[in-house]
Write a structure and sequence with these properties.
Blueprint: E1 4-9, E2 14-21, E3 24-27, E4 37-38, E5 40-43, E6 51-52, H1 53-61, E7 67-70, H2 80-83, E8 85-87, E9 90-92, H3 94-107, E10 119-124, H4 133-149, E11 154-159, H5 160-169, E12 176-183, E13 188-195, E14 209-215, H6 219-231, E15 240-241, E16 246-247, H7 250-256, H8 268-280, H9 284-296, H10 299-315, E17 318-322, E18 331-335, H11 336-361, E19 370-374, H12 381-390, E20 395-397, H13 404-417
Parallel strand pairs: 1-10, 10-11, 12-19, 19-20
Antiparallel strand pairs: 1-2, 2-3, 2-4, 5-6, 5-7, 8-9, 12-13, 13-14, 15-16, 17-18
The protein binds adenosine-5'-triphosphate and magnesium ion (MG).
Magnesium ion binds near residues 182 and 405.
Length: about 425
């Protein structure tokens, strides 16, 4: 029997798994016939069987009762991981929830290999957490413990952008100095690497990898910024109340704009706080929309509309979204210019992280021959413009944006365990 190993890309927004069996490396159908699965989980009430991915999202948006979660990766390395959460009245740790999601992914390999896969290379961003090496280390150890808990015996790690480079390498003609630009939901990661299809079976690539950089900025932050800039003001963000003209608590709006924090707002304490404020509010109409979202627990619906708007603005200059769930016939039109203004600062940070990668590698912009764009956030027109300007001489490739990391991790598992 051929020994097999696998690679798992546990993404903030989307995940994938690929297996390496002998010389063959391939992506596994992770949900139906799709090779990627949204990193979402839905717990229906009174049932221990959660749903995952698109199925989870569909159940949630069909207004089924239950608990919906996204962006679980952002919890790794944070204090929330030990805090746990209530799922239908039962306490559950976040690492158990991530384990359920990853076990579901691992089980999808069952039809392709008749034995349990024991060895895995897990992807990781260059930094799970910025400027905090201890938290970053903890995040990896947490993910490693989760991988062991679902039955993997040997667990190795690889930077996600390096994996993306490996996935593209088979198609490279000659030797090319490449930069991988991997902009996902949670992080932006860069690698400068020498690629050639002759190197595919080379075990030690350390001399080809010139530099890695990464920051904890991704599409989730674009959603957050767009929400705060264009939507939250319509829910009373920065409005005032009372005789002293105090500002409403802004943290609520920040949490409502972040996938991994929305659930924490659905407490009687928060709801009654807003009810109190509403009496003294100077903008009752808008603030009552916030109250309605919290009472009806439609925070995910709201942020999903923001994300949909962001994605629509990739193809269009303006988009009109319906917010019927907050107020009858409430429509808002948001323009690409507004979005670009909202993410201006983040786009600058992403571009600086790429520049820092060049600096660390000791190469000039002009020396880069190939730019490998991967990750969903590289679709954003402003981001594409930034990278075209940064690397005017380079060829650009952007195949399999959402699955190249998973595939590359399986190539790496072949090198590490094959
Ligand atoms: N057409 C589009 N325009 C703009 N953004 C998009 C588009 N398509 C997807 N995105 C964004 O891309 C992000 C998801 O990308 P991806 O699946 O690469 O992330 P991930 O691998 O899960 O995250 P990470 O690698 O950071 O953990 C989301 O924020 C999503 O909104
Ligand atoms: Mg990714």
């Amino acid at each position: 029997m051929l020994n097999s190993s696998c690679g798992i890309d546990f993404g903030t927004s989307n995940s994938s798994i690929a297996i390496a069996k002998g010389q063959t490396v391939r992506l596994v159908a992770a949900e139906g016939s799709h090779v990627t699965i949204p990193s979402a989980i839905f717990f229906p009430p009174r049932s221990s069987m959660p749903s995952y991915g698109r199925a989870a999202t569909e159940l949630f948006f069909a207004k089924q009762e239950g608990r919906y979660m996204r962006s679980l990766k952002r919890i790794l390395g944070s204090s929330l991981i030990r805090q746990g959460t209530l799922i239908n009245g039962k306490a559950m740790q976040f690492d158990q929830i991530i384990a359920l999601f990853l076990k579901n992914l691992k089980d999808k390999t069952g039809a392709l290999v008749q034995h349990e896969i024991e060895n895995v290379v897990m992807g990781r961003p260059v930094h799970f957490v910025d400027n905090d090496p201890a938290a970053d280390h903890r995040a990896q150890e947490e993910l490693k413990a989760i991988a062991h808990s679902i039955g993997f015996k040997q667990v190795a790690f690889q930077f996600e952008p390096i994996a993306a480079a490996f996935a593209h390498e088979a198609n490279i003609k000659g030797e090319k100095l490449a930069i991988v630009v991997d902009l996902g939901g949670g992080t932006s990661d860069f690698t400068i690497i020498r690629l050639s299809n002759k190197y595919i079976h080379k075990k030690d690539r350390s001399s080809d990898i010139l530099a890695n950089t990464g920051i904890r900025v991704g599409g989730n932050d674009f959603d957050k910024n767009l929400s705060l800039a264009a939507i939250m003001p319509e829910l009373g963000y920065k409005s005032t109340y009372g005789e002293k003209n105090l500002q409403v608590p802004l943290k609520l709006y920040h949490d409502l704009s972040e996938w991994s924090k929305i659930n924490f707002l659905y407490t009687p304490k928060v709801v009654s706080q807003i009810r109190q404020l509403l009496h003294q509010s100077h903008d009752k109409r808008r603030l009552s929309r916030l109250l309605r979202v919290l009472e009806a627990e439609t925070g995910h619906t709201l942020l999903a509309s923001v994300e949909e708007t962001k994605i629509a603005l990739t193809g269009q200059q303006a988009h009109t979204a319906s917010f019927d769930f907050m107020e009858d016939n409430l429509l808002m039109t948001i323009t690409r210019a507004q979005f670009e203004e909202a993410i201006h600062h983040e786009a600058g940070r992403i571009s600086n992280a790429a520049a820092q990668c060049l600096q660390l590698a000791g190469v000039t912009q002009r020396a880069i021959e190939l730019v490998i764009l991967t990750g969903g956030s590289t679709e954003v027109p402003l981001i594409q413009a930034v990278f075209k300007k940064l690397f005017p001489n380079a060829a650009l490739t952007d195949e399999n944006k959402l699955s190249s990391v998973g595939l590359g991790l399986a190539y790496d598992s072949q090198k590490k365990f094959g």
